[in-house]
Specification:
Blueprint lengths: L7 E6 L28 E5 L5 H6 L5 H13 L2 E6 L8 H7 L12 H7 L5 E6 L7 H4 L4 H4 L2 E5 L4 H6 L9 H18 L3 E6 L8 H8 L3 E2 L1 H10 L3
Parallel strand pairs: 1-2, 1-3, 4-5, 4-6, 6-7
Helix pairs in contact: 8-9
Length: 235
């Protein structure tokens, strides 16, 4: 559902580079912007200047724009705030301090809880859009024993990775995401058979979460799970 007046989940959206007046492609079911993904209303605001490349890389100059867009969402009726990029977690504290609603910008916020869901010998695999930019500041796990239980792998260099850097970005290639993520999981489980849970960092990955779950027979968490949990606590 989408509404401008209902109590909604507000979504901070990255720039996609569509020409002025162009009709955006229909969001893929399961994605953050699809009306079929949630059973509550959603509204969105584009964060000016926030492109995949500078959000993933980490551009501190974007923070005021994230804050302003979050405030616009609250003014429009958002009762919680999320985003279409897990790397937005860099702005989590600033956005949360600027609005009086829950803010969950990234599935990476689930990491501390997931570590406690499984035995201490088990590991959590974080699958990310770009592992070269998914550093310790994003993981924010400072206990060295717990950090050793987290393994990170990314799809950098793959088709979807390249597609997202284009302007305008093309429609999401579900097959490419599934192929790249399956490859990541197979390699990780071979190197780390202790992996007990998968966490998808990228907010585009939920479109294949069910397929990955069926393939690997392990729990798979993503940003849509965190959004549902957050909204269930409010509605």
């Amino acid at each position: 559902m989408t509404s401008q007046t209902s109590r909604s989940l507000g979504i901070l959206q990255l720039e996609r580079g569509l020409p002025q007046g162009a009709t955006p492609p229909t969001p893929v079911p399961g994605s953050m912007l699809s009306s079929d993904t949630f059973d509550f209303p959603t509204i969105s605001e584009t964060v000016p200047g926030a492109w995949v490349e500078n959000v993933v890389r980490g551009d501190p100059a974007l923070e005021p724009e994230f804050i302003a867009a979050a405030r616009r969402l609250v003014e429009r009726g958002a009762i919680a705030i999320s985003s279409t990029c897990g790397f937005s977690i860099r702005h989590q504290s600033a956005v949360a301090a600027s609005v009086k609603v829950p803010v969950v910008l990234s599935s990476l916020l689930l990491l501390p809880g997931l570590l406690r869901q499984v035995p201490q010998r088990a590991k959590i695999a974080v699958l990310t859009y770009d592992s070269t930019c998914c550093g310790e500041d994003l993981l924010a796990i400072h206990n060295l024993t717990e950090r050793a239980r987290i393994v990170v792998s990314g799809i950098e260099g793959g088709k979807f990775w390249h597609d997202e850097l284009r302007r305008p970005a093309p429609p999401i290639d579900i097959a490419a995401i599934e192929t790249d993520l399956t490859g990541c999981v197979v390699k990780l489980r071979s190197a780390h058979p202790e992996i007990a849970t998968i966490l998808l960092e990228c907010a585009a990955f939920p479109v294949v979460a069910a397929a990955i779950r069926r393939t690997i027979k392990l729990p798979v968490y993503d940003i849509t799970d965190l959004c549902r949990l957050t909204m269930a606590a409010i509605l």
